[in-house]
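Weekly sync, protein design subgroup
Attendees: M.S., D.O., the rotation student, P.L. (late)

Item 1: inverse folding check
M.S. brought a backbone from last month's batch and wanted to see whether the design step gives back something sensible before we order anything. D.O. pointed out we never logged the input encoding, so this time it goes straight into the notes. C-alpha cells as presented (164 positions):
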C-alpha cells in the first residue's frame, strides 16, 4: 500500500471510530436507557428479529464467549426484558425470548431511531451512502484477508461471526 493510501485509510478508520462513538451516544439517548449496554440492546434486537434463541445461538451471532453472553443475558432476564422458554430441540439449553416489556423497549427505541434517520436522510445523497457502504464492506473484508491474519490472529470461529 502506498503512503497516500495508508494515510487515507487511517482517515477513514478515524472517521469510522468518530461515527461509531457518535452513534453510541445517540443510541443511549434514543433508547433512554443509560444503564443498558449496546451489547444488551443488540441481544434484544436479535431476539426481536430472529425470535427465541438459545444462549448458544446468541453466542454464534457475535464474537463473544458463552460466559460473556450469559453475563449479558442474566440482567436482561432479571430486569424482565427476556425470559426462558422450553427448547423442544435441546432440553439442556432453554430458549430466551422477549417479554412484552422487551418488545415495548425495542419498539419505542426503533420508532425514535426512525424519526432521527428520517430527519437526517435528506442530508446525504443515496448514491453517497451506497458508495460508503461498499467502501466499509471492502475494508471489513480486507481485515479478514491474509494480509491482516499474518499480523493478528483471529480464530476461524471469530472470523465466521464477524463475516456477517
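Designed sequence read out in the meeting:
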Amino acid at each position: 500500500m502506498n503512503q497516500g493510501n495508508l494515510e487515507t485509510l487511517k482517515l477513514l478508520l478515524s472517521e469510522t471510530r468518530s461515527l461509531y462513538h457518535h452513534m453510541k451516544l445517540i443510541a443511549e439517548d434514543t433508547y433512554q436507557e443509560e444503564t443498558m449496554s449496546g451489547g444488551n440492546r443488540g441481544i434484544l434486537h436479535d431476539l426481536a428479529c430472529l425470535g427465541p434463541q438459545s444462549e448458544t445461538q446468541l453466542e454464534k451471532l457475535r464474537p463473544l464467549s458463552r460466559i460473556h453472553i450469559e453475563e449479558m443475558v442474566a440482567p436482561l432476564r432479571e430486569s424482565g426484558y427476556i425470559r426462558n422458554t422450553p427448547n423442544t430441540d435441546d432440553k439442556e439449553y432453554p430458549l430466551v425470548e422477549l417479554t412484552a416489556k422487551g418488545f415495548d423497549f425495542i419498539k419505542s427505541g426503533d420508532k425514535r431511531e426512525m424519526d432521527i434517520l428520517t430527519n437526517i436522510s435528506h442530508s446525504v445523497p443515496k448514491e453517497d451512502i451506497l458508495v460508503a457502504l461498499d467502501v466499509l464492506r471492502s475494508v471489513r473484508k480486507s481485515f479478514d484477508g491474509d494480509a491482516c491474519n499474518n499480523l493478528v490472529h483471529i480464530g476461524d470461529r471469530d472470523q465466521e461471526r464477524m463475516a456477517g
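Discussion: The chain has eight helices and three strands. The radius of gyration is 19 Å.
Action: P.L. to compare against the previous round before Friday.
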